[in-house]
Amino acid sequence: MDIRIRLGQNVRALREARGWSQEDYADRAGIHRTYVSDIERGRRNPTITVVEKLAAPLGMSAGALLDGD
């Protein structure tokens, strides 16, 4: 599976498990809501810096977010 698709699926599942909207999550991560939407749909190829920003509010490492652990 394409890593962008896997990342998007992981982000969406973890965000929804916490009951956060895309806007809530984007605010916590310090990125724009539409960027979160694009990531969840596998339409963006985020930098490792952005992956770290996505992982931080979830309390996990960038690697774990990519792996889905």
From TrEMBL:
Pfam families referenced in this protein's UniProt entry, alphabetically: HTH_3 (PF01381)
Domain of life of the source: Bacteria
Keywords, comma-separated and alphabetical: DNA-binding, Transcription, Transcription regulation
SUPFAM superfamilies: lambda repressor-like DNA-binding domains
Ranges for domain HTH cro/C1-type: 11-65
Molecular function terms, GO-annotated: DNA binding; DNA-binding transcription factor activity
Keyword DNA repair: no
Gene Ontology CC entries for this record: cytosol
Keyword RNA-binding: no
InterPro entries: Cro/C1-type_HTH, Lambda_DNA-bd_dom_sf, TransReg_Diox_bact_type
PANTHER family: HTH-TYPE TRANSCRIPTIONAL REGULATOR, HTH-TYPE TRANSCRIPTIONAL REGULATOR SUTR
Protein name: Helix-turn-helix transcriptional regulator
Lineage: Bacteria, Pseudomonadati, Pseudomonadota, Alphaproteobacteria, Sphingomonadales
